[in-house]
Amino acid sequence: MITDMVNQNGYDLKEELKEKIVQRKAVIGIIGLGYVGLPLVIEFAKAGFKVRGFDIDKKKIQILQNGESYIKHIKSEMIKDILPGFEPTSDFSRLGNVDIIIICVPTPLTPHKEPDMKYVFNTGKEISRYLKKGQLIVLESTTYPGTTDEDLRAILEESGLKAGCDFFLAYSPEREDPGNKEFSTSRIPKVVGGFTTYCLEVATTLYDQIVIKTIPVSSTKVAEAVKLLENIYRAINIALVNELKILFGRMGIDIWEVIEAARTKPFGFQAFYPGPGLGGHCIPIDPFYLTWKAREYDFHTRFIELAGEINDYMPYYVVEKTVEALNHRGMSIKGAKILILGIAYKKDVDDARESPAFKIMELLEKKGAEVDYNDPYFPELPHTRKYKYQKKSVELLSENLKRFDCVIVVTDHSFYDPNFIAEHSSLIIDTRNLIKNNKYIAKVVKA
Length: 447
Description:
Layout: H1 8-22, E1 27-31, H2 37-46, E2 50-54, H3 58-65, H4 76-82, E3 86-89, E4 100-103, H5 118-130, E5 136-139, H6 147-156, E6 168-171, E7 190-194, H7 197-208, E8 214-217, H8 220-250, H9 255-262, H10 286-294, H11 302-328, E9 337-341, H12 356-366, E10 370-374, H13 398-402, E11 406-409, H14 418-424, E12 428-430, E13 444-446
Parallel strand pairs: 1-2, 1-4, 2-3, 4-5, 5-6, 7-8, 9-10, 9-11, 11-12, 12-13
Antiparallel strand pairs: 6-7
Helix pairs in contact: 1-7, 5-6, 8-10, 8-11, 11-12
């Protein structure tokens, strides 16, 4: 972080904005009204701020203007309650009329697993058109160290204004966990890094108004690295148990039983669970942002890359186990009728981003299988950047289960009754340890 020298202009602007924040007179603009941006809108509006929500998706804007929600764990009543102080819009020219701008746009990967920064950079260019003195700009999208104080700052300063002097710049990584009832946005400590000490002071004051605790760090790069470490830690440990699942499977050992026994140790062990592959917008993507940036420093992130290889392989492993299980029953994968249970990337959420279900479906269909799915959260299969399937959810009835040669459990939603599924299915490939009743052991293949 750059230390502010004698900067009377920056000092005056800082004090003025801090006062507006504390007195709830600051108007907050949030760009990107998805799983990160919309919870922030709600928290700031509940705290008494006027909030403007920006999104290029006009359908989302219309839904919000009607007081409705498009995210399962965010109830429509929550939107209705904040509408007096919340204004959704797709008119980005109104960015000049807010005091604080928080960027919550996607940071996906290219097909070659390199950062796709167009959403962040295009948003920065749009902000620079309307940037005014005294505004605070905060990036929350997960990214590589250096994005905020190098790349984004350069774009914003094309306006002719200088960060730390004319406007404030900070990074605060999102820590959303959709569907987690214990830790909502306000109850999760917020890491904050500023381009200068003034920037940090203003940004910390902002988040102090809505979260249980702020964690100031010495720079935006440190804050960016914090988010990457959190997700890389999870990715590597998930890869470890995925690899052990394959090994223990060959040894006739149930990996889930091993984990449950190991987690009884009161220290030195944290349980991670295997699955059919990684999903969501964070764990499958974020580690590769650091891998890409590391090349600039002639460094190879071997642990990260190995974990990525193992986790990327898991959909292939599930399909291999499916082919093998069908063969044992004298059936071919070609022409086999297969039902995938669960499209969401994790249980009890309506979020299918990067879900391994899509890859499993693609691999099965390439082998000639006829694939359907069930997931009440997705009556129709959502389109992604890569997949454009035209499928509708099959109702989970006994007669429907019986007509499939194989059922693959990809997501263990709470509403899935394991005994009902096992009773009426002829073969189950269980990637989530959903079926635990030994009565059905002959029907179940763990994968």
